[in-house]
Amino acid sequence: MALIKDYAEHFDSLDDAKARELTEKAINLETQRIDVLKKYVPQFGKVLSAKRVARFVQIETQINRLIDVQLASEIPLVP
Hints:
Elements: H1 2-10, H2 16-47, H3 50-74
Helix pairs in contact: 1-2
């Protein structure tokens, strides 16, 4: 949410430096999302079958993509 708010606050005055900063933050958020999966998948694998873990990862990924699509439909592209 902080990234979206930051983008909205600077939308009309977005320069290259701010665009670069926001892009880096967006990529870092995606990296953190993957890092959480990488951290917990092995732990889930200790108590669940590989197929159940794979299903969990699929569902988690699909939910995140649905959220991303919803956000993308409401956030204008960089001018």
